[in-house]
Amino acid sequence: MTLSRRKFLKTAAATSALGLWQTPFNSLQALHLKYISGRPPVHMRRFTSQSVEALIRETCASIADSELALMFENCYPNTLDTTVDHIVDHGNADTFIITGDIDAMWLRDSTAQIWPYLSLIEEDHGLRILVEGLIRRQIKCILIDPYANAFNKDETGSQWDTDMTEMQPALHERKWEIDSLCYPIRLAYQYWKSTGDLSIFDSTWKQAMRLIVATFREQQRKTDIGPYSFMRKTNKQEDTLPLWGSGNPVKPVGMICSMFRPSDDATMLPFLIPSNLFAVKSLHQLSVLWEKIGGDRAFASECRSLADEVLYAIQTHAIVEHPECGLMYAYEVDGFGGRILMDDANIPSLLSLPYLGLCRRDDEIYQNTRRFVLSEHNPYFFKGSAGEGIGGPHVGLDYIWPMSIIMRGLTADNADEVRQCLSALKKTHAGTGFMHESFHKNDATIYTRKWFAWANTLFGEFILDVADRFPEILCIASI
Fold it and tell me: Is residue 215 part of a domain?
């Protein structure tokens, strides 16, 4: 618990003692609210952590707005409650985490879903073993195919088996996305930072890390387009790649091609800037981990060298001048001078750069970029009677992703903007107590994906972040 959070809880207790607070969370029924807990019964929950349960009780008791407290109680544990398949066999942990209403595990989503619990694993042995099992499962997946984004629990095949790419029975989908290989490094690095444990980083883990770097090198496309191609029979342009599956051409300037975005939509120009910046960070983290575990120093140096090369290319080709916002990051470029100016709600996004540790919140280029993506200049920023926020091509025009509102709050540096984000999320959950993939800008009851665990746990992370950075906001009785 951080010092600011301790201060928040102390302030909350004093306020309650003075009788200034709304009815406590555990007396919701007395308020005759239409919102009820959406958590499964205890015996039906997929995984239970006493540390998580204690944090839920502590946090809910400290939120003056009862509806917001209930949303936190529903959302924060949603990954553990509903998506985890965890076993320990002869001392070896294996954790498979589905994304929600799709029975498959994304490397990206599974990391993001478990991320808000990592601060608890130092003291919670069971939760730590759960994360260790996820790291092992992700490594297994990468070694099966580093170009795949989503995997089955077993070799059961997929609805996408007819995709024109090198499908295998273990794959759910084979869309090449840079961030699919960055997120497992992020998870491994934070696991080590949280526990100090290096024992999990064995020869199998090292093999997977070398494969990640080799894949990044292949997708710099310096001499040829590499081994990856993808086509799908579909009426949705974003679900397939042009030029017989190789994607649009690039000039090999040092960045890494990503043929799909974190939304699983095809890129228009293959140098996807948020994901390339993510790769820079991940390669630096990998070099640190590699040296800590006593690995080959030459490989650690290779990671740093590749990171420097990618960063130089970004600085040279991806920072553009906008007539109103100034110097900012493009979303996609091709090295020939082509550029796409937009942002998508999925993470990594341009909005999320400081959240992922890819830049400082007060970085001038980021602030210019932030003004752009949260304005009408961004073609996927929507504003209506129900709210405002970023969407993307994946769902279509006029649909706002709660994830973008959460990310706006997580990257905001002032209390008013954070409070506005909380208020918007409270007004747009459509009476369900959960986050959704998207909602229509003029009617939040029109939404997609009732069960989207990443958005739910990210909301929980946002509440905890508010408690740390702006504790006074959660003392407001009606946000």
Answer: yes
222 in a structural domain: yes
Number of domains making up the chain: 2
Q: Are residues 153 and 8 in the same domain?
A: no
Instruction: Say which residue the tokens 């800590």 belong to.
Output: 292
Average pLDDT estimate for 253-281:
98
CA angle 157/158/162 to nearest 5° reads: 105
436-450: pLDDT as tens digits: 999 999 999 999 999
> Do 280 and 310 belong to one domain?
yes
Does 249 sit behind a cis peptide bond, omega within 30 degrees of 0 on the bond before it? no
Give the torsion through C-alpha atoms of 415, 5, 77, 130, to 10 deg: 130
Say what the pTM is. Answer: 0.92
- Domain span including residue 313: 98-379
Contact (CB, 8 A) for 413 and 361: yes
Domain assignment present for residue 90? The answer is: no
User: Hey, what are 291's tokens?
Assistant: 């040296």
Give Cβ neighbours of residue 14 (< 8 Å, ≥ 6 apart). Answer: none
Q: What HEC string does the chain produce?
A: CCHHHHHHHHHHHHHHHCCCCCCCHHHHHHHCCCCCCCCCCHHHCCCCCHHHHHHHHHHHCCCCCHHHHHHHHHHCCHHHHHCEEEEEECCEEEEEECCECCCCEEHHHHHHHHHHHHHHCCCCHHHHHHHHHHHHHHHHHHHHCCCCCEECCCCCCCCCCCCECCCCCCEEECCCCCHHHHHHHHHHHHHHHHHCCCCCCCHHHHHHHHHHHHHHHHCCCCCCCCCCCCECCCCCHHHCCHHHHCCCCCCCCCCCCCCECCCCCECCCCEEHHHHHHHHHHHHHHHHHHHHCCCCHHHHHHHHHHHHHHHHHHHHHCEEEECCCEEEECCEECCCCCEECCCCCCCCCCCCCCCCCCCCCCCHHHHHHHHHHCCCCCCCEEECCCCEEECCCCCCCCEECHHHHHHHHHHCCCHHHHHHHHHHHHHCCCCCCCCCCEEECCEEEEEECCCEHHHHHHHHHHHHHHHHHCHHHHHCCCC
For the cut 50, the answer to whether the pLDDT of residue 31 exceeds it is: no
Q: Are residues 373 and 429 in the same domain?
A: no
Q: What are phi and psi of 399, to 5 degrees?
A: -110, 125
